[in-house]
Amino acid sequence: MSETTYVQLLYLACGGLLLTSVLMLWRRELAVLIRVFAVQGFALAVIAGLAALHHGGIELGAVAVGILVLRVGILPWLLRRAVAAVGPASRETRPLVNVAASLLVAAVLTLLAYAVSRPLVELAPAAATSAIPIGVAVVLIGFFVLITRRRAPSQLVGFLLMDNGITAVGLLTTAGVALTVELGVALDVLLAVLVLQILTGRMRETFGDTDVAELRELHD
Amino acid sequence: MITLLMLAPVGLPVLGALAYLLFGWRPATAWIAAGAAAGELAAAIGLAAVVDLSGPQIAVGGLARVDALSVFMLLVIGTVGLLATAASPSYLAAEIRAGRASMRTAARHSLLVQAFLAAMASAVLAADLGGLWIAIEATTIVTAFLVGQRRTRAAVEAAWKYVVICSTGIALALLGALLLNYAAQHTPVRPGLNLVGLIAAAHTLDPAVTKIAVAMLVIGFGTKAGLAPLHAWLPDAHSQAPAPVSALMSGVLLSVAFYAILRVKLVADAVLGAGFARALLLVMALASLALAASLLIAQRDYKRMLAYSSIEHLALIATGAAVGGPLAMAAVLLHMLGHGLAKGVLFLGAGQLSQTDGTSRIAQIRAVAARQPVLAGCLGFGVLALIGLPPFSIFASELGIARAGFAAGLGWFTAIALSLTAVAGAVLVIHVSRMLLGTPAEGPGAATASPRLPAAAGAVLLAGLTLSAALGVTAGPLTGLLHSAAVIAVGTP
Amino acid sequence: MSALGIVGGVVQPLAVVAGSPVLVGMMRQVRARLEGRAGPGIAQPWRDLRKLFGKEPIAPRGTGVVFRAAPYALVATTLVVSFVAPLATVDSPLDPVADLFAVVALLTAGTVALALAGLDTGTAFGGMGASREMTIVALVEPTLLVAVFALSVPVGSTNLAAIVSSTLRDPARAISPASLLAAVALVIVIVAETGRLPVDNPSTHLELTMVHEAMVLEYAGPDLALVELASAMRLGVFLALLANLFVPWGIATTAGPFAVLGGVLALAVKVVVLGLALAVGEVFLAKLRLFRVPELLAGSFLLALLAVAASFFLA
Amino acid sequence: MNPTGLALGVALVLGVFAAVLGAATRKHLRARAVGAVTALCGAAGTIAGISAMCGTRYYAAFPALLPLSGVTITVDSTSGLFLAVTGAVAFVSAVYGVGYARADANGRLPQAVFPLFVITMMLVVSAGNVGALLVCWELMALCSLVLVLTEHHRRPEVARAGRWYAVMTHLGFVAILAGLLVFTAAADDDTFPALRVAAHHLSPTTASVVFVATLLGFGSKAGVVPLHVWLPRAHPEAPSHVSALMSAAMVNLGVYGIVRVGFDLLGGGQRWWWLLTLALGGISAVYGILHAAMSTDLKRLLGYSTTENMGLVLIGLGAAGLVADDPVVAGLALAAALLHMVNHAAFKTVLFLAAGSVQRGAGSRDLDALGGLSGPMPFTTAAFGLGALAASALPPGTAFVSEWLLLQALIHARPSAGAAAVVMMPIAVAAVALTAGLAVATFVKAFGVGFLGRPRSAGAAAARESPASMTAALGIAVAVCAVLAVLPTILLSQLGSLASGLLRTGSPAAMDGIVVRLVGVSGALSPLMLAVVSVGAALGLVAVVRLVLTRQARRAARLWDCGAGPLSARMEYTATSFAEPLQRVFDDVVQPETDVDVTHARESAYLVEAIEFRNRVLDRIERWLYTPLLRAVSVWAAAARRLATGSVHRYLGYGFYTLCGLLILLAVTR
């Protein structure tokens, strides 16, 4: 693979990452969100795969496969189960901030990510590192989704969006986070999602509907 | 031998967890948990001796490392863990009697508590930041089910908030760790995330990147340590968890998370000088203190009250860490231990109280002293220990933090922190005195005698208080360890 | 302890004990004449005392030691003051006792004894008198102390003999602003302390107004005689002190018989003049409402305070 | 180990032993065992104190105690004075406790904590470094708090008083802590010698911060207005032997702190500090005695009187600091303040213990329900009477001598001491004088209404005298009072040299023989002669009257009472009515709350069936200062609760906004 192809593909994947993030802000249907999330996972796997090809590491290849399995396969599946259990009321009802404002905020957050990431890019200017701001932007957008979405599954999506961003930053910044660490991280994310999914179930048992904004029994 | 000693603090609880998985919870197995915690404590003491004799040790292929600081944290985990697990059998038995739990729940509880202990031990034994991160994230996952154990609406709500907020925070820490790793990649030595290596390579780390990384790491681990801005899970989770778990979470988990901040601060100080981490920690600490003190004033629930007091104490610890220097660091470490003991005693006592009185509302509990003198005594003196009255050790550590703060030229910040602590202390005393003192209500309901405090639980509470008082009188054999741990925590300027 | 002091220590108490009832008699006589009555003559108080001393002592039921001891305490404190203060001679037999603060406190102690006696009777009148008397004392004592302070600051001593000698040496001091202010304040509080109009009317037994008389209602016979004697003596001592603090001339400065005789005569003249002035004043004054009295006393306290301020600022 | 150290060590060992006895012995032995051993502990403390005052200093260091600080013990002559006073009060209170505590405070906890309270007070004054001082101070506060709460299950006011006390003492402690730590930060370590060295190069601002913070902290313990609010609540609610310890010994430690920090460690300092001290003292003295004069609760009255007397002590301290250029007068003022403190300890012990006996014997401490105790409780009545005399600054009373000295010091303050002094001295004199006058009225009320006359309640009518241990303790305390009253010279020379040592002047305001003759300024007083002459005159008079004038025996007769019918207790003046005229006079200051409810008869509005009159004198400062403060705090707390609404989005939002803000900051400042 020539250097230019690598860069082109890399940028394409990163663009996909950002685009899917914005889409997640845009769309309200949980089912659509999950599909978009799977696409994003695929883009992430592409970034990992490209890194593996470019640096020629077997470990990275394994990581790419792992990401593909986890983020395109397992996590969307778990999410779908969570949403399916919710029942017909699966459409996201009015987020705390309306869509137009959300998109505007996403733009601002992306700019902020660019501004903040300058030192990161400057440390080792390269094709991969210059895409770091996108990863950071995805993290911030994910955080924003987390604080503006009412339903438990969509909060879950926000959390995973953040996590995708972090993984992207990890893949872009480095070729060699120790495999054990990477594995541990993946496992932890998986477990966190599992926990949240179980809790979603329990919330449904105890509260009936899973509007997180209604969880306000514990307060001062 | 050393490897064995270093594996024991993780391995023994894992074995305990396996035991509960295989045999379930019953009177015969009830004390396995305490046994494992005692073993963990013993291993910590052994390690302390080893570290004292021959310095830091590395084992398990470089994944685990132990120095005076981690040994001290192990001691904290072991001590408070022993207190909490020793109080568990009677607590679980009472829960089962009251129909709030089954044998299965008890077994799962014990299993998870063991896993919790193992995760905390591995956090302090981890040789690199990645391992530390994984272990701390693992504590979230394990305790999520413990918080939600009761499956009431409130418990599930608390668990949800706990997991969402903590996972978010810890995700930020992960981002920080990755960025730090990125910075480390571009140094000649490439230390990765190894805690010692990072400090050794500090002068070659890129300061701008490190700054962003440290900010993320401190906010992220600060979430688990109960520091503002992502502190809000704490009162919910600590008030809903079963008493022994609250004791462990408040008494140890927060300190373990703060241990991570201490490690990050070492790197930050080496790269950026003391100013950056200090400013960050001070702002977070003062915000947390102000918040805890304000919310304590009108508090209506005594478990939440204790939880806010934990925020306050961690903020105080953060103030101490921000001050830096051997005295402040020794005080911070002593404070962790003292707070663990006091808060452990208080949460266990509060659990006892909510079992007998059936409510956690301050306004609904009166005249405990007249009904259950021993429990009231433990709670009363526990609160006095918590607000830093001698002879309890928090007095000594608060004094140390304050003294170091004034000496470091942070007089105003220290004075504000002290005033807020004083307000919080005064409010705690007022709330608790309303519950403990007074004349028991006369009437038909008053005739039913309150159940007595189970002997084991009483012994645990008294032991915790006694230990705290003894530590306040003299650190005794801990003195050396405390000082070498403080030296490590200060780092080499 | 000088010869002059010893002479004074003997002469002064005698003069006070013998002269005070006469002073009271003279004041009553002057009032009677001014009011168009014949009057009983100036020796009438002595005649009363003789009659009372001849009666049987009474111990009212329900009263205790305090009630019985109070008249003695009252007379004794006044006697001590007349013993140590420079009334007729400038020296005192017990110089370390002749301190202005001590004298003021001693006189107050006598009042306190009487108030306690009033309370000890357990009657409504006793309590009422004691309450009113203590209200007045609570305001009079500070005024006295502050006035004394004002007089002491320029001299640098609270010793009575020292103040008197200092005024003798430096007559201008008597008309200094501090001195004048203090004099006015002292006059007011002495009127209050000795139970004269307009603060208290010694010749009435109306429960709405009486102060001193209410406390002593239960006394009879020799006890009453002592109380009456004591109040006469207190009047005499206060007037003598007032006179000598501001107009000390004539006081004996040597132990010679003529000097001492002159001192006693000068004392008698000064006290009589003051007493007559008081009596004449009383004719034209009505008694103040009880709750107006504090205003008067507060005024005198303020004057005394001003005197102190003046003595500091103008020193 | 020298005699001072030995005696102190013995005292500590005995104290701990007594605590163990209190926790371990059986109920019927407990009071006796604890009382006896604590009394010995107090005696040993007194000996240690006297030995230290005579010049035997003691020093010891225990670096292993109190982690991160270490403990140093230094007993010098200043400590000695306070040690001796504390020990003596402890001795008397412990003896009294044998009889008193058996009935009222015989629980394991109070009995075990009582001796600990004694030794912690001794340790406070023996501390030789900041860490030790602070730890002992807090231990003392803790012990006293536990003791105050002894009867919490009987009366709800006890818990309320305990809360006030706990909060105020905690806040006060933080002030002390901050002040001393600012000081320590400038020194090499936290021992007193190091601080003395550091004081020389302390910046004026820092020194002022240190002084003001410690003044507030120590002042709150001494019950200085406006930080006094806990005192008239907590002192009365404690068991009486504890009240005595608190009011006679513990408040002194506030004075100790001010003396130690202000004079000894900071070495005098700026004039306005002492002006502030003097002003606080003056306000405390007048305010305290005014409220004492209005109180009807005997122990509350005594509590306010403590505030008054500490105010007088502070006036002395302030005057000493203000005229520090004039060593003679400054020494005189300081010696007067210290003497007054000792005197106050003596008579307040008597008064609180007697009040305890009254509470025990007559079942009430409400003056309006007492009276007529001189018959059934002669010893207690006599003791209280003498104590009241001692407290009211009348000769031959105890306080008279010290107030006389104080006034002498104020008189001899030269105008050269500065304009501030010239303005303040007359005001100080007025405050002292007003205090003296009101104190007379107050104690006449307390003694006259509480003990004389007829009983006003069934409890008072059935009063019984206390057991021997209590009357013995009272007797000892009265004897000490009497000795201090007539022979202050035995103490004054010591106090004079102590004062000159503290002021580093080297010219002691010494006193000689039986006459207090001031050195360097004109002034002399002999309390002994005064007492002898007065008593002699009275006895002579009795002899003359009984032997010469009337030789008949006294005849018992009915009270005349203007010929009214048989007396009933309801016709008597009560404490409330006694104080009513004074209350009117100071209406604007105390602002009493009165309300009158008139119930009219059903038949006609002109006929009155019942009139209910209520009159309460509330603490004005409490209402002005603390009520708005508490209200502000609760408003704040209510507002703060909006931070924790339970919304997880909001909680995460805190993090999100902080993160964004921080990132922007990092991006901008890079």
TrEMBL record, chain A:
This is Hydrogenase-4 component E. Its main location: membrane. GO terms for cellular component: plasma membrane. PANTHER family: HYDROGENASE-4 COMPONENT E (PTHR38601). It is a multi-pass membrane protein. Keywords: Cell membrane, Membrane, Transmembrane, Transmembrane helix. InterPro entries: HyfE-like. It comes from Kutzneria buriramensis. The chain crosses the membrane at residues 6-26, 33-54, 60-79, 99-117, 123-147, 159-177, 183-200. It is found in: Cell membrane. It comes from the Bacteria.
TrEMBL record, chain B:
PANTHER family: HYDROGENASE-4 COMPONENT F. This is Hydrogenase-4 component F. Signal peptide: none annotated. GO terms for molecular function: NADH dehydrogenase (ubiquinone) activity; oxidoreductase activity. The keyword Lipid metabolism does not apply. The lineage of its organism: Bacteria, Bacillati, Actinomycetota, Actinomycetes, Pseudonocardiales. It comes from the Bacteria. Pfam families: Proton_antipo_M. It is a multi-pass membrane protein. Keywords: Cell membrane, Membrane, Oxidoreductase, Transmembrane, Transmembrane helix. Residues 126-420 form the NADH:quinone oxidoreductase/Mrp antiporter transmembrane domain. GO terms for cellular component: plasma membrane. The chain crosses the membrane at residues 6-23, 30-51, 71-94, 106-125, 131-148, 160-184, 212-233, 245-264, 276-298, 314-337, 374-395, 407-433, 453-473. The keyword Cell wall biogenesis/degradation does not apply. GO terms for biological process: ATP synthesis coupled electron transport. It is found in: Cell membrane; Membrane.
UniProtKB/TrEMBL annotation, chain C:
It is found in: Membrane. PANTHER family: FORMATE HYDROGENLYASE SUBUNIT 4, FORMATE HYDROGENLYASE SUBUNIT 4-RELATED. This is Formate hydrogenlyase subunit 4. The keyword Kinase does not apply. Keywords: Lyase, Membrane, Transmembrane, Transmembrane helix. Its main location: membrane. InterPro entries: ComplexI_Subunit1 (IPR052561), NADH_UbQ_OxRdtase_su1/FPO (IPR001694).
Automatic annotation (TrEMBL), chain D:
The chain crosses the membrane at residues 6-24, 36-60, 80-101, 108-125, 162-187, 207-230, 242-259, 271-290, 302-324, 330-358, 379-399, 419-452, 472-492, 528-549, 651-669. The keyword Transmembrane helix applies. The lineage of its organism: Bacteria, Bacillati, Actinomycetota, Actinomycetes, Pseudonocardiales. Residues 127-423 form the NADH:quinone oxidoreductase/Mrp antiporter transmembrane domain. It comes from Kutzneria buriramensis. GO terms for biological process: ATP synthesis coupled electron transport. Keywords: Cell membrane, Lyase, Membrane, Oxidoreductase, Transmembrane, Transmembrane helix. This is Formate hydrogenlyase subunit 3/multisubunit Na+/H+ antiporter MnhD subunit. It holds the Pfam family Proton_antipo_M. It is found in: Cell membrane; Membrane. It comes from the Bacteria. It is a multi-pass membrane protein. The keyword Repressor does not apply. GO terms for cellular component: plasma membrane.
